[in-house]
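Please, structure for the following, as tokens.
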Amino acid sequence: MKKALMASAALAALWPFAASAAERTLTISVYAFAQDDFKTLVYDPFEAQCGCKVVVETGNSVERLAKMEANKANPVVDLAAVSMADALAASRAGLTDKIDTTKLANFDKLYDVAKDPNGDGMSVGYTFYATSIAYRSDKMKIESWADLLKPEYVGHVAFPNVTTNQGPPALYMLGLSLGKDTPDLQGPIAALGEKKDDIVTFYEKSSQLVQLMQQEEIWAAPIGRFSWAGFTKLDLPVAWATPKEGQTGGMNVLVLTKGSKNQDLAMQFMDFWLSTEIQTKLAEKVIDSPANSEVKLSEAAAGNLTYGEETAKSLKLIPSAIALDNRAGWLKTWNEKVGQ
């Protein structure tokens, strides 16, 4: 009886620690994309390593940022994956904390463009992508973004709507090619407006483009590299353009929620995600282009991703402050010049 009481007392003494370990939870907010693969390649292995539980919340950027704002006083999310511009918006709203990169063993492995994308120390890039032009190489020659508006080509072009992720970057590069590269994008939007009746469609979903090209309704469209794989499966000569003005694109980043009670665990998870092993696995599955410069890919994976130091250095990304400060103006000008 005495031994039983002693054992019970010992268990009782240990119980707070056991409960604490069992309740150790990391809540992350991420894009809904490829979550089955992320669970297998990232979340489950991290849970096994940390002895914790990873709770995943998904949704579009607007919904997820709104939830972070609503829970600002008592944060639910510990870490979020968002775009560069959304990271700056969250920082401006006081929703995120500065990242102590000295605690990230994999930080120095990142391409320079991913180390501090907004220049404020509040985010770290985990993947980026190039945006250029997919085109029928037997029908046309693309040497400049301005070639999309040539009379002989423009009637076979799809262009992204300004409300899409690809819209502003493509407009930015078109503006560069036309010598009209002001942050308000008025020049390229006006140029598109003049040709709006010729352009096949101002697309909102890149998934529709492969079918349009297969049906030969379009010959060219600006796309993100993550959409390229579908075009390579067509029995048509489709090429990826390298215009003289360069390529643009975008970057997704990781941020820490201000006031989170699990920032140490969030930092561990961030470092895990940025590791060469995890970045390689995600890239080989053609899920994310690696921000880790040590990743070495198979030819098949590399051909469908934004990959390599030269590519990383060449991307002309729209600064987040310009994107945030001009979004409303871009939409207003678009509606006036191009319409719905």
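The longest strand covers residues 124-136. The beta strands are 25-30, 53-58, 79-83, 96-97, 124-136, 158-160, 201-203, 220-224, 238-240, 248-257.
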